[in-house]
């Protein structure tokens, strides 16, 4: 079998840098004990990797206090901590139609079970939300604005600096879901007026699955929604208030932290700008190769300014699922089809009623040769109906 062309990097990056595999293996074989729980050498060394990664990620996002970098399982876990830990009955929140279900479903639960009011702002025809629309929705009880920094469906990068400034002027907490953006484009929470950032390790930070986290600025307090072991002050009956323990529960995924540490290091060494430039060059190649093909519809791809390497399309006469199957079986190309866990943007695009669309997610290890193969494959599929 020919080597698979992996174009599902929007779901998870693959492959990882070889250094990630090697360091995870080395770490688990040599330091795979419970970090921070005891005073013996292995435990201390394991804990040092965890604390060094806190500092690394704090600097990566331009935070100020490594203790306020808290690890979780992934973005969904972090976003649940944020949303359920900030909102109470009677509060108002604002989000957008480009959100992933990792934001939508926690918000829906707050609406259904706590009586939180939520407004969802649409994006324009190019896939961007207008910052000036947010103040029109601000209320006296608006507690939180939370948005997807870069869409996992159409790839648009939202103007978080402007939105954050408007929130800051009104004293409203501003949180971003950086699942698709962290590791692809620079994020500076100070310069971009972000109060809380949720991230995952397994996408563009090039770590493994099962590790993610959040950074919470000084002055923002997220209440406990869970309780459990922290490894310190065990006699205290309630969960600890101080960070990072405030938002960490039980044994950390230490080998995941080790892999994340190495993935972020790889990104920093290669340079985010270089990685992004490479991925957007390939995205533009896809766009230019398919935009004028009869029977192919592209979504929000006319201008790739303020985009990441996410490419969404449909082929006339085919269900998206069937296109994905043909790409897999006949051409050995991995893609993602359906609604991509983001139903509101598909409703806005008009693709919800036709069961979604086909997504290519470009990663740092994709090549021009692979992209040309994908272009030729999609053209051949489109020709089947013409």
Describe this structure in words.
The chain has 386 residues and is α/β, with parallel strands linked by helices. The chain folds into two domains: 5-15 and 271-383, Aspartate Aminotransferase, domain 1 (Alpha-Beta Complex), CATH 3.90.1150; 18-269, Aspartate Aminotransferase, domain 2 (3-Layer(aba) Sandwich), CATH 3.40.640. It is 38% helix and 15% strand. A seven-stranded mixed beta sheet has the order 2-8-7-6-5-3-4, sandwiched between helices. The protein has a four-stranded antiparallel beta sheet with strand order 9-10-13-12, covered by helices on one side. It has a two-stranded parallel sheet with strand order 1-11. α1 (18-31) packs antiparallel against α7 (254-270), α2 (41-60) crosses α7 (254-270) and α3 runs parallel beside α4 (101-114).
Q: What average pLDDT do the residues reach?
A: 95
What composes the largest sheet?
A: 7 strands, mixed
Q: Name the strands of the widest sheet in spatial order.
A: 2-8-7-6-5-3-4
Strand content: 5-15%
CATH topology of the largest domain: Aspartate Aminotransferase, domain 2
Strand segment tally: 13
Just give the CATH class of the largest domain: Alpha Beta
CATH superfamily grouping of the largest domain: Type I PLP-dependent aspartate aminotransferase-like (Major domain)
Q: List the domain count as a whole number.
A: 2
Q: What would you call the shape?
A: globular
CATH architecture of the largest domain: 3-Layer(aba) Sandwich
Helical region count? 11
Q: Could you say which structural class the secondary elements and strand pairing correspond to? A: alpha/beta
Q: Which residues sit in consecutive blocks of at least 5 with pLDDT less than 50?
A: none
Distance linking N and C termini = 29 Å
């Amino acid at each position: 079998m020919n080597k698979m062309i992996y174009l599902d990097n929007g779901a998870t990056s693959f492959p990882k840098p070889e250094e990630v595999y090697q360091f995870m293996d080395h770490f688990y074989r040599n330091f795979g004990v419970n970090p921070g729980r005891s005073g013996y050498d292995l435990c201390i060394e394991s804990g040092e990797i965890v604390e060094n990664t806190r500092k690394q990620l704090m600097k990566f996002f331009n935070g100020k206090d490594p203790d306020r970098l808290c690890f979780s399982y992934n973005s969904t876990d972090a976003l649940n901590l944020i949303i359920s830990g900030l909102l109470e009955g009677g509060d108002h929140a604002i989000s957008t139609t480009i959100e992933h279900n990792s934001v939508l479903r926690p918000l829906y639960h707050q609406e259904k079970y706590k009586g939180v009011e939520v407004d969802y702002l649409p994006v324009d025809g190019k896939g961007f939300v207008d910052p000036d629309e947010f103040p029109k929705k601000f209320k006296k009880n608006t507690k939180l604005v939370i948005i997807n920094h870069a869409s996992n469906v159409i790839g648009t990068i939202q103007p978080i600096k402007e939105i954050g400034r408007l929130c800051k002027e009104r004293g409203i907490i501003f949180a971003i879901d950086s699942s698709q953006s962290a590791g692809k484009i620079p994020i500076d929470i100070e310069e971009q007026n972000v109060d809380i950032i949720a991230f995952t390790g397994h996408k563009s930070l090039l770590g493994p699955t099962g590790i993610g986290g959040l950074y919470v600025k000084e002055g923002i307090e997220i209440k406990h929604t869970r309780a459990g072991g922290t490894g310190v002050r065990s006699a205290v009956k309630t969960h600890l208030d101080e960070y990072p323990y405030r938002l960490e529960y039980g044994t950390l995924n230490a080998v995941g932290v080790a892999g994340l540490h190495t993935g972020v290091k790889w990104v920093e060494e290669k340079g985010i700008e270089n990685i992004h430039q490479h991925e957007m060059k390939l995205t533009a190649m896809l766009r230019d190769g398919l935009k004028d093909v009869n029977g192919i519809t592209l979504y929000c791809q006319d201008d790739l300014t303020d985009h990441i390497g996410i490419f969404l399309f449909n082929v006339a006469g085919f269900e998206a699922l069937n296109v994905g199957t043909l790409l897999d079986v006949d051409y050995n190309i991995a893609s993602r089809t359906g609604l991509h866990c983001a139903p509101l943007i598909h409703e806005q695009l008009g693709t919800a009623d036709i069961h979604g669309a086909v997504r290519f997610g470009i990663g740092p290890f994709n090549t021009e040769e692979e992209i040309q193969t994908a272009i030729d494959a999609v053209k051949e599929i489109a020709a089947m109906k013409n």
